[in-house]
Specification:
With 550 residues, this protein is of the alpha+beta class. It has two domains: 56 residues, no CATH class; 384 residues, no CATH class. The chain is built from 14 helices and 15 strands. The strands form two sheets. The protein has a ten-stranded mixed beta sheet with strand order 1-15-14-5-6-4-9-8-2-7. Helix 7 crosses helix 12, helix 7 crosses helix 14 and helix 12 runs antiparallel to helix 13. This is Eukaryotic translation initiation factor 3 subunit D. It comes from Diversispora epigaea.
Length: 550
């Protein structure tokens, strides 16, 4: 018998099969392994030197020895042929990330060893399904340190097809701005204040005090509809006008998560920062900055949804400010409340004072960038060296065990003994809200900032509440505790003013993206939101009461 050697074709020019051995149709295709099951043996493994293996411990040596069988040859080359998504999937969220093996049901006979812990596994599975029904995945469950919820929120206002984007600014750019501005000066003061009841400073959490409802009303008048601001504009007292609620939102905007919008009207050489009726400024958010904030629910009876919590917090703030004052002692300002027209109406008004204050945002002496802001005070304390003016706000606890609580401590047990931890948690979960309150107090020139701690009587009932305690802080010290830079806020305001002053007369809307840390400036038609003409030299101030909105 004759043995004939097979033909051997050597590839002298490179690595891999010789071109002569490949069919014509495969010659221009780059080589890659056809199966990930192909293994790379130890003879070609240069990643584990022999000396390193000798020095390894027994467990590590075993890992080195059997690592080869888990490494697929060519696994790194597969990325060259992988499909890349071209669309933006930032808003995509996987509800169920379990593997097919986890989803597949199995049966084990009762009493078998494999069934140990079956009841515990079943309970854990039920909890997982509950959180999936809430719109989250397993990674977003409370207690997981890797929480990173992805939620899609709607914009605060629908962007019309005729709206034109003029500017887009990321929050990280806003955070780098800075402008030092001196304390404001009073231009005009209106209204009256009741004195603060100091007995509320001595309420311990163990002797809680019921929060009483209030029938008094509070007005939320936008900038351009304020009769005092209209007159100040005619008198050329400033070039920019705003209210403390609108301005504080803009100054603290890098901390915001939920969507918002500001209407900016350019009339002549003046700017008016306005709000829409029933906008976000009239309501208070809850745990907006928490790592796992409250989730929107289709269930209208869900008292822990963001909207329900916002309405609850807004009502709590209103009632708390009414309850902690002494109505037998009253402090009158030089002028009456500009939003009431009769003494009967005053009896139904919430006691508050309005300070119209001027701030100079000019960078040099040649320019004139002055702003008048309508600020608000809530109470006054009589002291030996004069009166001390206060702003009054309230934090609220809904259910420390509920989803969206943000790891809140139980106030009834921790407020008296660990108040610092309670405050730190609130600063983390409500960074934007507390920063706005501090800025509003600073703008108003308040000497103190009173914070109340209000909780539900029962976590399942959002209609009855109790006061567990109060806290006093100086606004600038409180801002420093939150690492809040007021000069950064003024830098943001000056930047927006500069952008808008370069635009022609008209109406513009500044909108915070609902799902990204970005703000956009839009040019919109003059009749957008059906707002009346802002400033008309022929206006009769006696008819301004028609512009008042509740």
């Amino acid at each position: 018998m004759n043995f004939q050697l097979p033909e051997i074709i050597d590839n002298e020019n490179g690595w891999g099969p010789s071109p002569a051995m490949l069919p014509e149709k495969f010659r221009d295709i780059p080589y890659a392994p056809y199966s990930k099951a192909d293994k790379l043996g130890r003879i070609a493994d240069w990643t584990t030197p022999e000396q390193k293996e000798k020095e390894a411990t027994g467990r590590q040596r075993q890992n080195y020895r059997y690592r080869d069988q888990y490494t697929a040859y060519g696994h790194g080359a597969s990325s060259a042929f992988s499909y890349t998504h071209a669309e933006d999937e930032a808003t995509f969220s996987v509800v169920d990330n379990r593997s097919p093996a986890q989803k597949k049901a199995s049966y084990r006979a009762p009493g078998s060893n494999k069934n140990r812990g079956g009841a515990r596994n079943q309970q854990r599975q039920q909890r997982n399904n509950q959180y999936q029904r809430l719109g989250t995945n397993n990674r977003n469950m409370p207690g997981n340190k890797n929480n990173n919820p992805q939620r899609t929120r709607d914009a605060s206002v629908n962007v019309g097809p005729e709206w034109k984007v003029l500017e887009e600014i990321e929050f990280n750019r806003l955070s780098k701005l800075n402008l030092e501005v001196d304390d404001g000066e009073d231009v005009s003061s209106h209204g009256f204040l009741y004195h603060y009841d100091k007995s509320y400073d001595r309420i311990p959490a163990k002797t809680e005090k019921p929060l009483l409802p209030s029938e008094r009303v509070r007005y939320f008048i936008s900038t351009s509809k304020d009769p005092i601001i209209k007159q100040l504009s005619r008198d050329d007292e400033a070039v920019v006008f705003a209210t403390d609620t609108i301005l504080s939102l803009l100054m603290c905007s890098p901390r915001s998560v939920y969507p918002w919008d500001i209407v900016i009207n350019r009339i002549g050489n003046k700017l008016f920062f306005d709000k829409r009726s029933n906008g976000v400024y009239d309501y208070i958010t809850v745990n907006e900055n928490a790592a796992d904030p409250p989730i929107e629910s289709a269930d209208k009876d869900n008292i822990n949804s963001p909207n329900a919590l916002s309405l609850e917090a807004t009502d709590i703030n209103h009632c708390f400010a009414m309850q902690v004052v002494n109505e037998t002692k009253r402090h009158e300002f030089e002028k009456s409340n500009p939003f009431v027209n009769s003494t009967e109406e005053i009896e139904y008004m919430a006691p508050c004072a309005y300070r119209y204050r001027r701030f100079d945002l000019s960078i040099n002496e040649e320019e004139n960038v002055t702003m008048i802001v309508r600020t608000q005070l809530d109470s006054v304390v009589e002291q030996t060296n004069g009166n001390s003016f206060l702003t009054i706000k309230a934090l609220n606890e809904f259910d420390s065990r509920a989803q969206g609580a943000g790891g809140s401590l139980d106030w009834r047990h921790k407020l008296d003994t660990q108040r610092g931890a309670v405050v730190a948690t609130e600063m983390k979960n409500n960074s934007f809200k507390l920063a706005r309150w501090a800025v509003q107090s600073i703008l108003a020139g308040a000497d103190q900032m009173k914070l109340g701690y209000v909780s539900r009587v029962n976590p399942k009932d959002n209609n009855r509440h109790v006061i567990l305690g109060t806290q006093s802080s100086k606004p600038r010290e409180f801002a420093a505790q939150m690492n809040l830079s007021v000069s950064n806020g003024w830098g943001i305001v000056r930047t927006i003013i500069d952008i808008c002053m370069k635009l022609p007369e008209g109406r513009y809307v500044l909108i915070k993206d609902p799902n990204k840390p970005v703000i956009r400036l839009y040019a919109v038609p003059q009749n957008t939101f059906e707002v009346e003409e802002i400033i008309d030299d022929g206006d009769d101030l006696e008819n301004d009461e028609e512009d008042v909105e509740k």
